[in-house]
Amino acid sequence: MVSTRPVPNLVFRRLRGQRSAGEFAAAVRRAAREIGEQVACDARYIGRVESGEIRCPNYAYERVFLHMFPGAGLEDLGFSAREAVRGRGARISDAGPGAGSPPSPPPTVHCHTDEESDVLRRMFMTSGTATVAASLGLGGASAAAALTSLPAQRRVGETEVNAVEQAVRQIRLLDDRHGADGLYRRAAQPLRAAYALLDAGTTTRRATADRLHTGAGELAISVGWLAHDSGRFEDARSHYAEALATARVAGDAALEAHAFCNASFLARDTGRPREAVRAAEAGQRAARSLGSARLLALLALREAGGRAGLGDRTGCDRAVGRAYGAFERGASAADPEWMTFFQEAELEMLQAQCWSALGDWPRAARHARRATQLQDPYFTRNLALYRAQLTGDLARGGLADEAATAGHGVLDLLDRVQSSRIRTMLAGAVGVLAQNATPAVRDLMARHGEARRGTTGATASSSSRSAGRA
Hints:
By secondary structure, the chain is an all-alpha fold. It has helices at 10-16, 21-34, 43-51, 59-68, 82-86, 89-92, 114-135, 143-149, 158-178, 184-200, 206-229, 233-250, 253-269, 273-287, 293-309, 313-327, 344-357, 361-374, 380-396, 400-411, 420-433, 439-469; strands at residues 155-156, 202-203. The radius of gyration is 22 Å and the shape is globular. Residues 91-112, 448-470 are annotated as: Disordered. It comes from Streptomyces finlayi.
């Protein structure tokens, strides 16, 4: 059995030298101020790094550490590569120091440019979809042809399982930056290939079979999330159900908890709050044996969202309280790798959504504002989402000019983020603001209208090109 215990980061401990953890934390904060960063570093954080609990720092801490130690890379400081922490490799490998931490971009994807978007999309096609296809011996065949030509007794080994897991990693990395709309159709191909392996393949080892079931289930959830975020709710529901069935067949409690977590989120978003509560409670039952306090915290917040949708303020408060209690127990090696997004910013955002559903706009806005302040700017999609939530809460709370400013912040990111969900949230907020338009609101409305026309034009152009290829 592979060990998942944190491995102490002895390199980082040596760099601290004779300074106490508190003194070194103060040096980190000073270095952050020198480059315009804000990090809440304290002795406890330094202890978590040195104990190996944090395998890789978040993006802000990375910039600070590299400023403090010029010429060094993260691995020179005793950390693990980002890709290993962001993907499933974080759970199955004991080669690097420490345990999971907030994710950051791969070393090659730091800049915010159109060129970066093209590189990432090519990377997905070559390292995600195409790698899966190649590993299955499919070459450049279409997905349909690939499935019909798959041998009935194909042997499945490390190559095929690694390819499925790599597809999951690439989808998550791209969604962090660009949202779901441009990824969903392409992501369906490796999902079909993965389930074809489950249906028709054989494996030589039980461990390989278990990894394939988990990988296929996680891929179904990832593709389901892309459907969810791009407004394809029935597709999302189908993918989550597929993942849940896979979890039940494989007896995989972690996968079952993940599927219920996403199913609860979808139910809340589609106006089925009672179903959201039931799914969240089922997820908590599945997660109890896994040892992850952070997973229980997230599932409690999913329950809180459902209860808020039911108008159950007391039940919502209780669920939020349980979430805080679990969250404050901290991260651990038992946390699933897909939860790297669940940091304090997301904790604030999910509370904002609860209070918004209950009509407490000032309280919702406070949490949404806090979420935007805490969110690492690398995660462009979530930053746009948090700003859209803030825009809506401020608008409904009667703070029109402040809402307009937040709305401009969303539009600043929508050239890089393709998410129907975020666009719908922003459009709803603008609709509220239009009822009593100030000069600042009129400026936002004009810019929003231009952005919508641009999106419509791009969609029409894309459809025309697709028709030509067909």
